[in-house]
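[Q] Does anyone have a clean structure-token version of this?
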Amino acid sequence: MSRSADPVPRCQSTGDGAEVKKMKMRTTIVAIASLIACGLVQAQIATNPNAKVDPKNNKVSRPVVEKPKQKLLTRDELRACMVGRADNEAEGKKIKEEEAQVTAQRTAVLAEKEELTKRGNEIAASLNQLKSERDALIKSGEDAKANAAKMTKDELKAAQEAYQAKAVELDKRIEAHNKTKDTYISDSQGFDAKVEAYNKRKDELATRVDKYLETVDEWRTSCQNKAYDELDEKAIKKELDAKAAAGQAK
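[A] Here you go.
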């Protein structure tokens, strides 16, 4: 089971512009190893294919050879192994499904982060443009005031009206900019909540995977390659099938 750390940054807004703060997080990439199909071994007896019969005493010169008897799992132990194997397989499938959902959630968070970063850059550029236009307008007003004595009454009036019209138009654009910025700030805060939710889900998945792997290791220690009686296996399967059928009937 492997994991890789891959940070998903969160977006924050600051002042008149936007600044993206990175937040480290690790993403669990789950590779569930398939469980052994059975992992249990039926008890066996081997025979000697070269055994011969002595015609004088009618005895087998090389009799049937039995392997040393293995300790068989009790029926309760075998039942626990079979149930544990089924539970592990079911949990492995659920973890794979959860991993796919967490990966999709991470993709969505990264896409939104990229979109917010673009919007933040656009807001910062808009702010710089507005500042430049405001400074130019203020300078034009100061120039008009300085040259007022040289202007005729009509020229001064025209200069004042032109200044006022530009000021009104600039104020409208500044108001629109501020509304856009406020929306961006709100969206950034919502994005931060999404990052927190993703981090929480990702960490919970990592904990779940660790627990799953520990359970699989315990099952292998207790059950893998352990001998059992085939009659016990058949009886347990019949018992489990009956319980499953009864559960579906409810």
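[Q] Thanks! Anything notable?
[A] The two ends are 38 Å apart (CA to CA).
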